[in-house]
Write a structure and sequence with these properties.
The chain folds into 2 domains: about 1-35; about 35-295, 4-Layer Sandwich (Purple Acid Phosphatase, chain A, domain 2), CATH 3.60.21.10. It is globular, with a radius of gyration of 20 Å. The protein has 7 helices and 16 strands. About 25% of the residues lie in helices and about 25% in strands. By secondary structure, the chain is an alpha/beta fold. It has helices at about 5-35, 70-80, 105-115, 130-135, 145-155, 200, 250-255, and strands spanning about 35-40, 55-60, 65, 85-90, 105, 125, 160, 165-170, 170-180, 185-190, 190-195, 210-215, 230-235, 260-265, 270-275, 290-295. Helix 2 packs parallel to helix 3 and helix 3 (about 105-115) runs parallel beside helix 5 (about 145-155).
Length: about 300
């Protein structure tokens, strides 16, 4: 059957509109307007069923205009509060991850937004690689995380840097560990030295109470002992682009196929990787919207 030039041009135009529409969605709608809330319920090894704990997990804010403005961060914090968490944790990467912005959001601006976070056991944070590498966006110089540390302090969030803090819930205690960033110092292209010290953090645990670990990157998981009931991570953005059938091939090569997103179980060790809120490299998300996570410990697993 003959295929006319008119039909070809019509088909090409339709395809172009489709691709353009998907591009607009990936660059505008999903990263800037959508938000998923993901719930995990589990009782990992070493965590007693008699110690229920609800955790709101915020990761990879990557504050910048227009995608993750101070106003949007504030609304997400309100949603986290609506979960009625016992504990709220923020897993690093407060700084924007790319220069495709209309304006940076400075630490004092996002700090005012996260100051509204409330939880009976407190709000705790760790740092991510972008917090070490540059200022509020990559084109701005770093100040060695001083502005971020100050913003967190003024917001009432406690920064954990290879530290352990003991908390009590329903008369029982547990430990919360915060790991320093594993990619803090760039040595050369693709080569980094970390500010992390897992042994130091674990060495502050003085009894057999359950342990939770906050780590920005999931790379550390291979070294995490079974003594840790659950590791909470961000950094990967869940691949940022999750295509039908294809999945997340780039992220899988970069992080390992099983360490991109979601609930990971290896050798009875448990890790949850959040897709986070913001973006890096490019302001694009497809099939992996920004995500706020709620973790229920001491609860039956969700089927």
């Amino acid at each position: 059957m003959a295929f006319s030039r008119r039909k070809f041009l019509k088909g090409a135009s339709t395809l172009g509109l489709g691709v353009g529409g998907l591009g607009s969605y990936a660059f505008g709608v999903e990263p800037g307007l959508m938000l998923d809330v993901s719930n995990y319920a589990l009782t990992p090894p070493g965590w007693p069923e008699t110690l229920p704990l609800r955790i709101a997990v915020i990761a990879d804010i990557h504050a910048c205009e227009p995608y993750m403005s101070a106003a949007r961060i504030a609304s997400i914090c309100d949603l986290a509060n609506a979960m009625s968490p016992d504990l709220t944790v923020i897993l690093g990467d407060f700084n924007g991850g790319h220069n495709y912005v209309t304006a940076p959001v400075m630490p004092h601006q996002w700090g005012e937004a996260i100051a509204r976070l409330k939880a009976p056991l407190g709000v705790f944070a760790i740092l991510g690689n972008h917090d070490w590498w540059h200022g509020a966006i990559p084109s701005m110089r770093t100040n060695n995380v001083e502005a971020i540390s100050t913003a967190l302090r003024h917001a009432g969030a406690r920064l954990l840097d290879n530290e352990a803090v003991q908390l009590r819930q329903h008369g029982r205690s547990f430990w919360l560990l915060g790991l320093g960033d594993q990619l803090a110092y760039r040595v050369s292209r693709g080569v980094y030295n970390g500010a992390d010290n897992l042994d130091r953090a674990l060495g502050q645990v003085t009894d057999d109470a359950p342990v939770l670990l906050l780590a920005h990157e999931p790379f550390i998981f291979n070294r995490v002992p079974r003594r840790v009931s659950l590791t909470l991570c961000g950094h990967t953005h869940g691949g940022q682009v999750d295509l039908p059938i294809i999945g997340t091939p780039f992220a899988s090569r970069r992080f390992g196929a099983n360490h991109v997103y979601g609930h990971v179980v290896e050798d009875d060790r448990h890790m949850i990787i959040s897709a986070g809120l913001g973006t890096s490299i490019l302001p694009v998300r497809f099939g992996r919207p920004p995500e706020l996570v709620c973790v229920e410990l001491g609860a039956p697993a969700i089927a």
